[in-house]
Amino acid sequence: MDDGWTSLTELNSYRVEAYAACCLFPATVEELREAMRPAAGQAVHMLGHGCNVILASKYYDARHRFVCTRRLEPGIVVDGREVRAGAGARLRDVCRAAARAGLTGLECLWDIPGSVGGAAFMNAGAYGTSFYDGVVSVEAYEPGADRLRTLSRQDCRPAYRTTAFQGTDAVIVSVRLRLAPGDRAAILAEMGRIGKLRRSKLPYDLPSAGSVFRRPEGAPPVGVIMEEAGLKGFRIGGAQISPRHGGIIVNAGGATGEDILAVITKMHEVMLCYYNTVPKLEQIII
Ligand SMILES: Cc1cc2nc3c(=O)[nH]c(=O)nc-3n(C[C@H](O)[C@H](O)[C@H](O)COP(=O)(O)OP(=O)(O)OC[C@H]3O[C@@H](n4cnc5c(N)ncnc54)[C@H](O)[C@@H]3O)c2cc1C
If you measure from the C-alpha of residue 284 to the centroid of ligand 1, how many angstroms do you get, rounded to a whole number? Predict the structure, then answer.
């Protein structure tokens, strides 16, 4: 599409077709400061690598401003036991850099798609490890005060898929991790094992944004419930509950944000009916 609209299709891992009238890609803190000054009445939407978002609309007009941090300080520097990674760096590249330097602690995070900014916002995790397990501090830009602030791990209040950044307009700029020394070959072997495990369970063959819901309390995992309810493969439009993993919605072809939200509504109904609970969405609706 032309006319100054930016395609968001390659910027969201569901590959939902969508367009924004205003989408900025700051590469430096100075550019970020400019980007975070929206026009009056404009809503700002942060986007990292778009692996945990649902774009509910096809067109986002000038009332919306997407600020995409995929190019923001993408460098990764390893210094002794410390790794400093910019918000735009891929989490996968951070895991790889740590492994090559013989640093252990990130193996279980291997192959989680997305950026360091997104991982620090969501407290991404898998197989008992969370991103914040290794975090020493996070540098964030606060638009209201127009300042860069360094937050300690405690300041970030990490818990299961939540952090203090959620519900604020702070932008994560970089993260400092401290890891333990380990055996390089063993670390790489463990990453290989994790990678194979993930690929055997998750539908990497079709566009998705990973688990739709947070783990419910007092109920089995959502994927198990969907399987019990016979809903694996359930489809509305192009959005389908993955036939491989009942907790994940895939874009089986031409899915719109509306299709995805309609499948989520169905999953809600099933959860209510079977377990009288509605789990929290893990994905962010924009
Ligand atoms: C196949 C697949 C498997 C997945 N498996 C897992 C898994 O095992 N564990 C897991 O935890 N997640 C998983 N996910 C979800 C996703 O990978 C993570 O949530 C990831 O951390 C999102 O990073 P992102 O850069 O794509 O963030 P985005 O999706 O772009 O953004 C997510 C949220 O973070 C905010 N954000 C992003 N960058 C910044 C920034 N610099 N400053 C402030 N806010 C920011 C956005 O505003 C948004 O609210 C999976 C996704 C896919 C597609």
Answer: 9
Cβ–ligand 1 contact at 156 (below 6 Å): no
pLDDT digits (tens, 9 = 90+) for 100-129: 999 999 999 999 999 999 999 999 999 999
Q: Report if residue 191 sits inside a domain.
A: no
* Catalytic residue, candidates 137, 174, 211, 242: 211
Domain's final residue, options 55, 71, 87: 71
Rounded distance from Cα 254 to ligand 1 centre (Å): 22
Report the domain count for the chain.
3
Rounded to an integer, what distance in angstroms lies between the CA atom of residue 119 and that of residue 177? 13
Query: 139-192 pLDDT, tens per residue?
Result: 999 999 999 999 999 999 999 999 999 999 999 999 999 999 999 999 999 999
Instruction: Look up the CATH number of the domain holding residue 227.
Output: 3.90.78.10
Pocket mutation for ligand 1, best pick of 15, 23, 47 (most atoms within 8 Å of C-beta): 47
Evaluate: CB of 53 within 6 angstroms of ligand 1: yes
Looking at the domain assignment, is residue 196 inside a domain? Answer: no
Find out whether the beta carbon of 209 lies less than 6 Å from any atom of ligand 1: yes
Q: Is 161 helix (H, G, I), strand (E, B) or coil?
A: coil
172 and 80 within one domain: yes
Place of tokens 């970020």: 32
Asked if residue 242 is part of any domain, the answer here is yes
Strand duo 239-241 + 248-251: pairing: antiparallel
In three-state secondary structure terms, 181 is: strand
Whose Cα sits closest to atom 17 in ligand 1? Answer: 113
Domain match, 215 and 144 both: no
10 is catalytic: no
Does the C-beta of 14 come closer than 6 Å to ligand 1?
A: no
- pTM across the whole model: 0.96
CATH code for position 157? 3.30.465.10
CA of 52 to the centre of ligand 1 (A): 4
Task: Find the distance separating the first CA and the last CA of the chain, reported in whole Å.
Answer: 20
- Considering the domain architecture, whether residues 177 and 208 belong to the same structural domain is answered as no
Please state, in angstroms and as integers, the Cα–Cα distance from residue 106 to each residue in 10, 37, 190, following that order.
27, 35, 10
